[in-house]
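User: For my dataset I need records formatted as: sequence, then structure tokens, nothing else. Please produce one.
Assistant:
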Amino acid sequence: MSRDIKGHNNLNITTLAFCNISASQFLLSLHSKYKMPTKLQVDVYVAPAIRAITGYSEYEKSVWSPISCVLIHGPDFAALIDTPITIEQGEDLAKWIANIIPKKKLKYIYTTHAHPDHYMSVPVLEKYFPGVQFVALQHVVAGIQELYDTTFDHIWPAMFPDQLHTTKPVPQALPASGEFYIDGEKLLGIEVGHTDNAFSSFLYVPSVDLVVSGDIVYGDCHQHLGEANTPGKRKEWLDAIDRIEALNPHIVIAGHKRASQSDAPYLIQSTREYIYTFEKELAVAKSPQALFDRMVELYPQRWNLFILDFGCQQSFAERDNKA
């Protein structure tokens, strides 16, 4: 091994030839042992909790969960993963993005799933960032369109009156591979089965060991079990959690969390345990209210009691129908 003028070890091509190894093989072996530096940075914006018209007089049952919005950016381009729901929240997010990446171009907005609280402010972002592409996996696109065609107009504008954009954004479908790129770095949308809704995915970024989970993984907000109201649907949710865990991510960003909550892999297990606990308590509860009270007792720090109450009502009704 020779020395360069700075005194560092310099393994040159002659040495490689002597060792009967090609330069490309040597570089590949290095890459497998030491992860190469990435161009990407990750910033997280958590849109704060807001009031919603839920039909309950109690304040605690009319506060919507905070929503995580993730900005992934390289030297020149950026992708935003999920947006909040209201126009005002979208305006605040747009200002934050402009401050974080003043000289970069927002190229993509990716939505993880078909719940409107993760994409209804896209038209606001499109105003601030002309040319941005709104994208999702094909099955998520289908789920969003199905929602618009069925229940959207009866539910969401009433919950957030005069706060939603009049345009109903529909994403472009990504290729079947789920891949798109920021400054040459791969971002991968991965389809899963039923989670807290029937049209769900998460985003995986291999170069930074990052998973943006959407509503597969939760922070300190009650998990939406109103649509995962059967053992089979909850099993699919647990399977999706397992798929995320199998990637061994270093960063896990939950779809709903406290702004101060760390984006760490422990959220995978806490989300799984919440589902197990809910199923255990559902099996013995005498009423939806008893189930609700027990979950509040076990998880006093979690937000959005409306979502918890809805989950208890729907899951209890399904349990009794099967009895």
